[in-house]
Every structure is written in structure tokens, then in C-alpha cells.
Specification:
Elements lengths: L3 H14 L4 E3 L1 H10 L1 H8 L14 H12 L18 H16 L4 H6 L2 H8 L7 H24 L3 H7 L4 H7 L9 E6 L2 E6 L2 H14 L17 H8 L3 E3 L1 H8 L9 H21 L3 H11 L3 H4 L12
Antiparallel strand pairs: 1-4, 2-3
Helix pairs in contact: 1-14, 2-14, 4-11, 7-8, 10-11, 12-15
Length: about 325
């Protein structure tokens, strides 16, 4: 059967072959690849990855990572949420969950299943306002409840068991997360041959990558199979750098704060384009897609990129 990651690659490529609102400037892709040439040499010359043989996984740290990625969405709400000084919306939400765990003790599947929107309001410092903020807190509570139930139903409440059953495969672990609705990141579009499903799977893949980064290295052997983690920042960086060229009306709308509908053609093309570009960069540089994704995401923190509005959509996938 086709793997989760192969579905992402093939479906995004198929969509971009018929894209009407976003196109790739292949010359700019090559220029960006050349810019990352030094990073390619540095990473290829690094020491071999350390394995986990002979040491124990910290289940508390791993469950916190999984919880952080369970609520690793909501960028469409970041224009209205209360942020910590100097931090982005994503980093504010992460910092507040980490602070809550540091103050109250490690998470467990039982605790996750019991979290309510009122709890999320307290943890993340957002008002239950009957509007967008309350909507996001409800989504966060559902996501954390689902994570607790997923662990209890399939893994005896143990994140270590979930990782172990993936048998060192990041793709298998990401696939197991699709049991939770908020991880089933697939959108339906119309192509010339008829209705078509575009697989994106941002958070399922990034959860495996983040576990490796924060609790590994050595958890997974197939991290090179992961694709980029399709959100709104990587396409924004590529747009600002001229790699992605948008339909003029779409570009104008985004620049004027137009919020895109989740699953709309424009929104899906933007996310798919980011994945396709990162795949091309990976082929030109020999860097893994997950590493290129992080480089581009961190690049987006620069003043130049923050000065221009990025696309926003209020959904649960990024």
C-alpha cells in the first residue's frame, strides 16, 4: 500500500500540475537551493545519529511533545489570541502548556481526557468570549481529549508503547495518529479527472519529527521519508522570496487580511505548493525535507517576512 508520506508527495504534485492560483518559479527554487548549500555540507558532515540502544525514553517528556503537537494548530486565530511578549502565537501556546506542566506535574492519558475548554482557557490564557478565542479553546480541549483516548484505547495509556509499536518507523507512527480526527489532514478538490483527495498530514508527521528532536535522536530510522509540514508560514516565506507566485487577486486579498476558508482551492494550493517546493529543494541539496522545513520556518521569524501578512484559515490542521 502507498505510505502516508507517498500519498502526500503524489497528491500535492498532482494538484500543482493543475494549479490555477499558485505556481512555482523553478529558477528561484534553484537559487534557494544554492543558498542552502553550506547547510547541506554541514549536515552531511555531521556525526552519525545516536541510537536509543541502552537508554530509556523519558515518557513524561515524550507525552508533553505529543500534547504540544496535538494542539499545534490555530494559526488562523493568531491575529486575535493573547500572546506572550516577544513570542509568536505558536511559541506562546507552547510556552504556556510547558509552564502548566512544570507547575502541575507530568501529563497522563487520564489528565488529557479530563481537560475542558475552561481548563484550556486557564492554561493558555485565552478568554471564553463566545467567539474565536472560545472556539479555539474548544478545539484544543477536543484535541487533548482525543490524545488521551487514543493512548488509552490502543496503548494502555503509554506514549512509550505507541512509539515502540511503530517499530522505529516515523511513517508508521504518523500513520497511527490518524485514528484521531484532527490528524486526518486531507482535503477534496476538483481536478480535470474529477474529485481528488489531497493528503497533507502536517501534524501527524511533525509529531514524529518533534519526538525525534526532543526525545531522541534514534527513535526512528526513516525520517528521510517525511515531507514538509504544510502550514501557512513555509508557503509565506516562499512567496516573499519569489519562489511561489500567486494569482494577483489572491495575493492582494492576503495582503489585505483576507481570511481563507479551510479546504478552499487557494488554501490547499498554497499548502501543497510548499510541500512540492521542499521536495524539490531536498532533491537539489540532499537535505531531509523535515530539516528544510525547519530552516524555512525559522527564516519566517525574520523582520522581512513578518512585515507582510501571511494567509490565514481557521481550521484544526495547522
Amino acid at each position: 500500500m502507498t505510505s502516508l508520506c507517498d500519498r502526500v508527495r503524489s497528491s500535492c504534485a498532482a494538484l500543482m500540475n493543475e494549479a490555477s492560483l499558485v505556481r512555482l518559479d523553478h529558477d528561484r527554487v534553484v537559487l534557494l537551493a544554492n543558498e542552502y548549500a553550506d547547510a547541506t555540507r554541514e549536515l552531511l558532515g555531521a556525526a552519525a545519529p545516536v541510537t536509543l540502544a541502552g537508554r530509556m525514553l523519558d515518557p513524561d517528556a515524550a507525552l508533553l511533545v505529543a500534547a504540544l503537537d496535538a494542539i499545534n494548530f490555530g494559526s488562523g486565530y493568531h491575529d486575535v489570541i493573547r500572546k506572550d511578549p516577544g513570542l509568536s502565537g505558536a511559541r506562546s501556546m507552547s510556552a504556556r502548556l510547558r509552564a502548566y506542566v512544570a507547575a502541575s506535574g507530568p501529563l497522563s492519558s487520564t489528565r488529557l481526557r479530563a481537560i475542558t475548554p475552561v481548563d484550556c482557557s486557564m492554561i493558555f490564557g485565552q478568554e471564553l468570549d463566545g467567539g474565536a478565542l472560545e472556539e479555539l479553546m474548544i478545539h484544543f480541549s477536543v484535541a487533548l481529549n482525543d490524545l488521551g483516548s487514543w493512548l488509552d484505547d490502543g496503548y494502555g495509556g503509554s506514549i512509550a508503547s505507541a512509539i515502540e509499536q511503530a517499530d522505529r518507523s516515523a511513517v508508521a507512527f504518523a500513520t497511527s495518529l490518524l485514528a484521531m480526527p484532527y490528524f486526518r489532514d486531507v482535503e477534496r478538490v476538483e481536478l480535470s479527472a474529477g474529485p481528488f483527495e489531497v493528503s497533507l498530514y502536517k501534524r501527524a508527521q511533525i509529531t514524529a519529527a518533534d519526538l525525534e528532536r526532543e526525545c531522541g535522536p534514534g527513535l526512528f530510522d526513516d525520517l528521510d521519508q517525511l515531507t514538509a509540514f504544510a502550514d501557512n508560514l513555509v508557503p509565506h516565506v516562499l512567496r516573499v522570496d519569489g519562489v511561489l507566485v500567486l494569482d494577483p487577486d489572491l495575493e492582494s486579498g492576503i495582503n489585505h487580511g483576507l481570511r481563507l476558508d479551510p479546504g478552499s482551492r487557494a488554501e490547499v494550493e498554497l499548502r501543497a505548493a510548499g510541500i512540492v517546493v521542499v521536495e524539490q529543494l531536498a532533491g537539489l541539496t540532499c537535505l531531509r525535507a523535515m530539516d528544510l522545513d525547519l530552516m524555512l520556518w525559522e527564516r519566517g521569524a525574520g523582520t522581512r517576512y513578518k512585515a507582510i501578512p501571511r494567509h490565514r484559515a481557521r481550521g484544526v490542521f495547522y
